Amino acid sequence: MSSIYKLSISGIRSFDPGEVETIQFNKPLTLIVGANGSGKTTIIECLKYAATGDLPPNSKGGAFIHDPNIAGERDVRAQIKLAFKNVNNKTMVLTRTLQLISKGKSQSTFKTLENQLYVLNHGERTTISSKAAEVDSLIPQNLGVSKAILNYVIFCHQEDSSWPISEPSILKKRFDEIFDSVKFIKVLDNFKDIRKQFDIDIKLLHNNVKHLKEDRKRANAKKFEMEQLIKTVDEYKLEIGKISLELKDITQQMDKLFKSNQDYEKVINRIDFLKNQQITLNSQIQRIKQSLIPLPNTIEDLQNKLINFNEILNEKKTAIENKRAIIKLKTDELNVVRASYSTNIRIEGQLRALFENYKLNIEKRFQIIKENYENLDLSIHNIEDDKVILEFKDKIMKKLITNEKKLKEIIDDNNFQIQEYESNLTMIRDSKMKEEQHLQYYETDLKNYHKENDSLNFKIRMIQSDETKITSEIHLKNEEIICLEKELEEITNQISVSSRQSETLAKSSIIKQNIHQNENIIKSIIDANGKAFKEKVGIDLNIETCEKDCSNRLLSLKEVYKKEQNIYEQYNLKTYQLDRDRESLKDQISILGNELKLKKQKVEEMMQEDFEISDYEDTIDDLEKNYKIALENLNFNDTTIRFNMNALAIAEKEKHCVLCRRTFKNGELSTFLDLLRESISPRSQQNAKEEFDRIKEDLEYARALGPDILRIRSLENVEINEANLKLNVLNADYDSAKKRADEQLKSLENLESEIYAVESFFKIVADLTRLNKELESYKGQLSAIQNELTEFGASNHSINELQILQNKSSSAMKVKRQELSHLTQTKEIITRELTKLETTIKDKRLRIGELEKNLSEKVNLKKSIQENEAKLKSLENNISKTRSMTEDLAQKYNIMVEKFKELKKRNEEKELEQKAKVDYLSNISTRFNELNDIINNYLGNDSPKLEKCEQDLKSIESKIKELESQIETLSSEIIDIDKSVNVADQELRNIRDNIDFRNLQVDLESVKQETAELTLQNTESERNKYTQEASRLQKLYSDLQAQHSGKNGEITQLTIQIENLRNELKRDYNKVDEKYEKEYIKLQTKFFLSNDLSVYSKALDNAVMKYHSVKMQEINRIIDELWKTTYSGTDVDNILIKSESNSSNVKSGNRSYNYRVVMVKQGVELDMRGRCSAGQKVLASIIIRLALAECFGINCGMIALDEPTTNLDEDNIESLARALNNIIELRKKQKNFQLIVITHDEKFLSNMNAAQFTDQYYRVKRNASQKSQIEAVPIAVINA
């Protein structure tokens, strides 16, 4: 608990710089009395400056220090020393030393020489700080209150004492500083900025997580696809194993069948062979006969001739085959090169489009430069010149910056001019208003002076007429007063001789009446509040224990409130968490829905319009069947093409069919050749290949959609449904938790109302305790009186009680009762006569004083008439001057307003013009930079690609031409060799035909003979069985072999796909799960941090709101008590401070309040500002300061009141004095309570009953050299 106990002043204002004046502050009351201008307020100023470092109002430039010119010195040093106890009860001393140096008639220099704060601990002095800024911040900390409380409440300057009734902006500023709202608003703003940054980070992380999640899904889809392919490969391998076993089994069966039927097979085969050979031989003989030219040579000669001929022919055929193989290799190479050529043509087309766009951007950039080169002093001979472009870019940026600076200068200059004009207008308007006010005052004074003159003249006439009467009356009244004083002295002597028993019994009667009155008040309070007290506290209202009962009930309610509040916060937190989970799940459902939509769009784009997801497997089966058919067709087409090429070559060379060797008739050969050429043309090959590629591509697309189809089904059937179910559960939980939180909140509100109701009993309890103490005191006094009466042998009863007792007593007491009654009546008669005489004396003295005053006023009235006449003339002159000045100011004000409007219009036009230039240049700069970036990007990336592509195309074209030339050369060589082979072939064929014909005849005879021999054996039946079984096994073996080959081919394709997927995962989705988890953890961390920060921000905001509302309730409660006990009028029931939330700041997220002081009249709230009198304004300001000190000065219980009776009437002065007396009485037990009252009104101190709390007061006065001095005076002097 902090308190101040000593202040030393020297060289401040009227205090002598050579002397140190000291004042010691007492507890609970320090009184400072002095005439106006003696230096009382300087003490408050010194306290305020010492505590806050702020100079008093209108004291900058050295006005706070004693003037050197008055002191007759060049410089004056001033010092303020304040000794105080800090909140830790340590003694601290603050010294502030100032200097004012005079430099001429009106120039001076103000300096702060020293600021020192030190601690005294058992005589040891420890310096805390000597820096002004640190000292200014340390003093409020050590006093335990804020700087605002010190400035506006505790040490409030007299000029600022009515700030609570000032204009709203000042009131808001003061209360914001008192409540320290700015600090919390800054904290909340910082929280808001941090949350904004968190939101940006969360958005970025959310995008990263979203992309990584998509990548992870794609990677999982790829992995799933790869696993499915591996699974399929494993299944195919198992099937191949099974097929291999089946093939092995069939082979064993065929071997067994072959072994069991070997003999029959040999015979059957031989017979079949011989029959076939016989047929063949017959057909060959017939064929040879048709084209045979018989030769006479023997068979040996023909064979020798054939052997040599065959060697040459074989060499030529070998050469043909070699060249055909080379042509095939060259053709394959040509196809590869052509495919590369097509790819490069496509890439070149894309790059050409970029090149066209590049040229268009160059043209646009040139157009921008062309449009603006004159303004920038550029030459546009070569738009590709980098120097021109850089120069343009540099100049446009410089011009933009220059124009922006110019725009800022124009705006600043315009604002300065507008402010200057506005200040001039305000000055003129204020001057005009002042002159008009002066004029109004002068006219009012003129009327008043006329009335006053008339009144004074009338009074002079009345005084002159009554002067003689008054003189005679004065003599008579003086004689009467002398007589009355004699009578009064005699009556006083008679009263002093009166019986002590009568006085004691009267005092006893009064005390009994007080006891009875207190008992009735206590009973009425208990009757009025007992039921409510028992209802709220739970115990009967007992005057002895009510205070303790209230405290216990309040403590128990607060404990319950705290527990209920914790439960509410838990429910509220749970509601918040459920709401957050619900929103997160909604976002997840939205993401899943978007993913489902995207997957369906992808499937719809890649498949046919009438495709249904449920038909995916059937579609795959159809496409696989089509793929097998197309593959078989492609293989068959290759075989057909090779056969047709062979047939074409034979038809061209030998002019007959390759199958039947039949020669063609007229026209048939050309038709046949055309058909063969068409069948082996590249176009037919390309059509078959394209058809196969199209079906293969459709199959691959359809297979690639497998993971998407699975994902769509999973989303539609599982994930979205599960998420919706979870959302329904969360919604139900949220509603339940919200309902519980609302119920708990209602419970808290009920507890708050109970706590408030119990707190409201404390005033009643305090009144009961006070009344009970007074009752005990009265009973003690009554007991003492009764003991005193007992000592004197008198009765303990009053006069009325004695009369009642005397009626019941015996006749022996009758004489005593008559004597007592006589004494009592005599006392009452004497007392009434004494009171009447005193009243008469007072009236006579007042009348004498009035008569003497009227006599002395005669001269004064004549002087006043003369002075008023002079003032009338002066006022008439002032009125004429003021009217002319007002007219001039009005005319000048109108001219200034017109000039201000014109200036504002010109400035706005300048700003708009310059802003248009800046916007134009900014637009040009942005467009130019964008085009420049696009062009540079093309030159850096796409242009080299285009050049490389063109070079590749040229090399590929030359390669194609070279390969086509080589193929053509080889084809012509084959034709030439083939022709020589065909010519030789005819001769060879004839030789061979003669040899064959002779050999065939021999072979035919041999075959016929062997067939006849074998036919005789019985093997036909066994042959048929063996044939059937062999055919079955052979067919089964062929089917299984085909399946085996197909599976192996598919495994090869699937292995390639698996390897591609593995490479894609390694290349595009490396460590995607780890990256996703890392980013997701970051996102969740940021998200929870943001939510926690939001919760803390709301909690802080609510805490500030709660603190504000509680403090305002407490302040208004104290104001209500003080006003009702202080204000003696009936026109204002109460005053209070209204704080209203500022709606404009609430929208932006900041808490702010507007304040106003209102007075309550018959239940209606009215703004006090502008509607209250000067006295009401002063009283309201004092009461508000007292309430603020009570609320915010817990650690610092001091308050200084400077001239509190200003503008107050006598009733309100007495009420304020009583209120201060009650405050001191209630808080004097508080160790650090100090009330400092500065006044010129000594009667106010008497009304306060100041002698009850202090033995002395300080009188401030001026000495002979007009320097202020402080002296301690006993308080008894005021009472005397």
TrEMBL record:
Residues 26-184 form the AAA+ ATPase domain. Its cofactor is Zn(2+). GO terms for biological process: base-excision repair; DNA double-strand break processing; double-strand break repair involved in meiotic recombination; double-strand break repair via nonhomologous end joining; gene conversion at mating-type locus; homologous chromosome pairing at meiosis; maintenance of DNA trinucleotide repeats; meiotic DNA double-strand break formation. It comes from the Eukaryota. It catalyses: ATP + H2O = ADP + phosphate + H(+). Residues 202-267, 474-501, 582-633, 720-788, 834-913, 946-1078 form a coiled coil. GO terms for molecular function: AMP kinase activity; ATP hydrolysis activity; double-stranded telomeric DNA binding; G-quadruplex DNA binding; metal ion binding; single-stranded telomeric DNA binding. Signal peptide: none annotated. It is found in: Chromosome; Nucleus. Pfam families: AAA_23 (PF13476), SbcC_Walker_B (PF13558). Keywords: Chromosome, Coiled coil, DNA damage, DNA repair, Hydrolase, Metal-binding, Nucleus, Zinc. GO terms for cellular component: condensed nuclear chromosome; Mre11 complex; site of double-strand break. Belongs to the SMC family. RAD50 subfamily. This is DNA repair protein RAD50.
